[in-house]
Design brief:
Length: 495
């Protein structure tokens, strides 16, 4: 669907600088330097690498690229101009990220997200526990846009429940991660879902719609496998979630009426409402729902004793812009019921800007053009191009140890190659997510693998096989490419 208010640079406007003096090895020097520095940075900082050090390493990578550029007679002014063009091209994505942060805040304090979790937990059944775990985590991850938050809260509870039923922790962890990463991929509130189209030059909801073509079949296969596994194993006891349901019920006024807000946003998206408009209206509807359904929480966020126009205004603004939290009687759920607002998105925005600096300098010195031409000479077919993208994402997840960089670096390198093949940016953004986002959790030393195994208390090697959705996704995208299923072409425009 076309966005009317966010128009990323069109392929014909994208200009990749060619530098005849630059050879392929010189073009790859900044890439190798960046991967090496990132690998060491992850080793030193671990999960905290995303707090800022990775962003600065991207700037160091840009500095290495600039040195190569100076050696090949590219001016500082030319590099800066290309960086400015790249940063400008991400304006739409940055605005959407900010609005997503605001929406998450109002949907939390209004009880929309807690209501989704409340009703989702009640579909548990011992026989189909694993499949139900996939569905619950998918719902929560779509609602929150975070696989990390989902696994760290409900995921921990589900692993414990599964263990009491006699189900191995590896199986349950695999089901949790399959659902969590499905939701992470498909949620417009997810940072990776916003990052992938930003790197490919596409539009958020076009990306989600196109990504569903490979993601939905993959999750269906995953659910079928878990249903078969669930029917073939013996379970004992029954899951006790009463304490969590009671905690949610006591903290929020839970009601199915609150689902009218997300339904309204879905309808707007289907009706091709511009993303920023849909997200803004969803945020405002969430604010109205919060005042009507959760006045006590609005007062609490505003730190006020009564609900007045001023306290309501302050509570809503706080939820939209900064950290907000709702405390319940369940310690496990308290981490889930927090939101960072617009401020919580600044880390991802910072990463995007620094990535654009690296990409801009690489573009200005002619490195991207040289790498793209080399890739095109190797990937002579459409399938070869898709396979090269998948391989690059997997390699970066293993070497750079970070899912964001597995999207950023291949996204910038392959963008021109896809355009030259006449392929729409959705092909690239979908492949980045199918192979970069979801496989990060399968690498023990990747930030995602280290985090998830630590939080769930299950080694990567134990849940690897059962994280079916995660390892099946790259094969699905390659299968679609091999048989030319739903490969979107660029729209031909008249001169």
């Amino acid at each position: 669907m076309e966005s009317q208010d966010i128009k990323p640079r069109q392929p014909q406007d994208e200009h990749i600088v060619e530098n005849v003096e630059l050879n392929i090895w010189e073009a790859l020097i900044p890439v190798f330097a960046l991967v090496g520095m990132l690998a060491y940075n992850i080793y030193v900082y671990g999960d905290d690498a995303l707090s800022g050090s990775n962003q600065f390493v991207l700037l160091l990578g840009a500095a290495v690229a600039a040195i190569v550029g100076f050696y090949n007679k590219v001016s500082y002014k030319q590099m800066l101009e290309e960086v400015a063009k790249n940063v400008k091209s991400t304006t739409g994505a940055i605005l959407i990220l900010l609005m997503v942060g605001a929406l998450a805040g109002t949907w939390l304090i209004s009880g929309i997200i807690p209501s989704m979790i409340y009703y989702g937990l009640q579909i548990l059944n011992p026989t189909i526990f694993l499949a139900a775990s996939v569905i619950i985590c998918a719902i929560i991850s779509i609602a929150t846009g975070s696989s990390w938050t989902t696994s760290a809260t409900v995921g921990i509870a589900l692993v414990g429940i599964g263990e009491t039923l006699g189900i191995s922790m590896g199986m349950t962890a695999g089901a949790v991660l399959s659902g969590a990463y499905f939701g992470d991929k498909m949620s417009p509130m997810s940072d990776t879902t916003n990052l992938a189209p930003a790197m490919a030059g596409g539009e958020l909801f076009d990306h989600i719609k196109y990504m569903a073509l490979t993601t939905v079949p993959t999750i269906i296969v995953t659910l079928i496998v878990f249903i078969i596994i669930g029917l073939s194993i013996d379970t004992n006891g029954s899951p006790d979630i009463s304490d969590k349901l009671s905690a949610i019920d006591s903290a929020f006024n839970v009601s199915p009426w609150l689902f009218l807000v997300p339904i309204a946003v879905i309808v707007m998206i289907i009706k091709k409402t511009p993303p920023l408009v849909a997200l803004l209206l969803g945020t405002l509807l969430g604010a109205v729902a919060a005042i009507i359904a959760q006045p006590e929480i609005v007062m609490s966020v505003a730190q006020a004793d009564s609900l007045t126009f001023q306290s309501a205004y302050q509570g809503i603004m706080n939820a939209m812009t900064v950290d907000s939290a709702v405390v319940t009687t369940s310690a496990e759920l308290n981490d889930l019921f927090t939101a960072g607002g617009m401020a919580g998105m600044l880390g991802t925005i910072w990463l995007i800007i620094c990535a654009m600096v690296f990409g801009g300098v690489m573009d200005a010195i002619g490195a991207l053009a040289r790498i793209s031409s080399a890739l095109l000479s190797l990937a002579t077919t459409t399938f070869g191009l898709f396979a090269s993208t998948v391989a690059s994402c997997l390699a970066l997840n293993v070497t750079a140890s970070d899912q964001y960089l597995a999207l950023v670096v291949p996204g910038k390198m392959f963008k021109k190659a896809y355009e030259d093949k006449g392929l729409a940016p959705e092909n690239l953004s979908r492949t980045l997510e199918d192979s970069g986002t979801v496989t990060s959790v399968l690498v023990p030393w990747n930030t995602c693998g280290a985090y998830q195994s630590g939080v769930l208390g299950v080694p990567v090697v134990d849940y690897f096989f059962f994280a079916i959705f995660n390892w099946l996704s790259p094969f699905t995208t390659l299968l679609f490419a091999a048989f030319s299923i739903k490969i979107k072409q660029l729209t031909t425009k008249s001169e």
